[in-house]
Amino acid sequence: MTTPAQDAPLVFPSVAFRPVRLLVTCLVITAAAVLAAGLSGHLLAGVFFGIGLLLGLLNALLVRRSVAAITAQDHPLKRSMAVNSATRLAVITVLALIIAFVFRPAGLGVMFGLALFQVLLVATTALPVWKKIRATGVAAPEVAEERNPGNE
């Protein structure tokens, strides 16, 4: 008998998430964006870009908090994580769209800031893991099988 996917226990691997480093990176990028936008005569676009970066960081912190709360339960379910994620993303997206609409065209910087934050988040969490994998020589099972075809 198998467990339906929505009722299966939630297993969430630990990741190399460093919020302080991301905050500093976001502040540096925001300062550069504000400077560049100010020099081009669109200061508010840079400010809204920084707001988008900070909204992305807020989202990442809320993800960490919700994962910790859900996985601490006796029987964590994928459904609760999915509902939590959908709700959080909907709220942040609606907030960003409202800012973009009310303060258009400069407010669109919020959307670009959110998008760039996702790239930063993936880069800052995936690269350390990738480096650790390369340093330890751990290979994916498919790659290991290709290297040793006689192990069947």
TrEMBL record:
It is found in: Cell membrane. It is a multi-pass membrane protein. It holds the Pfam family ATP-synt_I. One of its GO terms (cellular component) is plasma membrane. Its main location: membrane. The chain crosses the membrane at residues 20-37, 43-62, 82-103, 109-130. Keywords: Cell membrane, Membrane, Transmembrane, Transmembrane helix. InterPro entries: ATP_synth_I. This is ATP synthase I.
